Amino acid sequence: MTDRKTQLAANLEQVEERIATACAAAGRKRDEVTLIVVTKTYPASDVRTLYELGVRHVAENKDQDAAPKAAACADLSLSWHFVGQLQTNKVRSVASYADFVQSVDRPKLVTALSAAAVRADRETGCLIQVALDAESGDRGARGGVAPDGIEELAGLIEDAPGLRLDGLMMVAPLHGPYAGRQQASFERLMEFASSLRAAHPAANMVSAGMSGDLEAAVAAGATHLRVGTAVLGVRPRLG
Ligand SMILES: *Cc1c(COP(=O)(O)O)cnc(C)c1O
């Protein structure tokens, strides 16, 4: 194996062990939790190596980096998750390779994604990004809709051609009453996820937890973890 492959294998093994331990502690089955590796700022060659090591879900947060990477890896059976703030002028590109957009946070984006998915003849899985630090009607600093906007977006996505409502996503807030309280913020997210499922039973994905807080997310009940640094290493600045 190349040095890089050996390193990624060791990192993946450590992350896998953390997830398994967290699942056991929470009385959850390991297969209730899906690992998504966030490959942003790292090259397509790393994506390929991760695939060889068994990774099947990858995430990116910038279209300009993600589009060429997805094209370079088009021969692999990977699910691509888009997790960054998304401008409507990038939607057409993103819809051409993303299987999931986890950062849906406003009605305009739903309209644009729907048109792009239909045009590309694809179905895009949508997660509504929730920001606990956003005020009603606003978005959070890192994107996301305030909790009282979830249901409106859910209805719009469900009615939009080309889109599928899959669940909720959150990045633990850095500001506001939940700052530094990952566990509490993930538990709050799970409450919103339960309400969403009551109205939309198929929307059962809960994407929460990153390198630093994946245990708290597993304990709360997350179904998908988005892990970058712990697998690929610390990103260069501006990543
Ligand atoms: C970068 C990123 C991650 C991964 O963060 P790490 O701390 O590197 O694991 C997860 N989610 C989103 C939305 C990200 O942008």
UniProtKB/TrEMBL annotation:
Record's keyword terms, sorted: Pyridoxal phosphate
Coiled coil feature spans: none
Pfam family, one: Ala_racemase_N
Signal peptide: none
Span of domain Alanine racemase N-terminal: 11-236
PROSITE patterns, per the entry: UPF0001
Family annotation (InterPro entries): Ala_racemase_N, PLP-binding_barrel, PyrdxlP_homeostasis
Protein function: Pyridoxal 5'-phosphate (PLP)-binding protein, which is involved in PLP homeostasis.
Family: Belongs to the pyridoxal phosphate-binding protein YggS/PROSC family.
Protein's name in the database: Pyridoxal phosphate homeostasis protein
Source organism: Streptomyces sannanensis
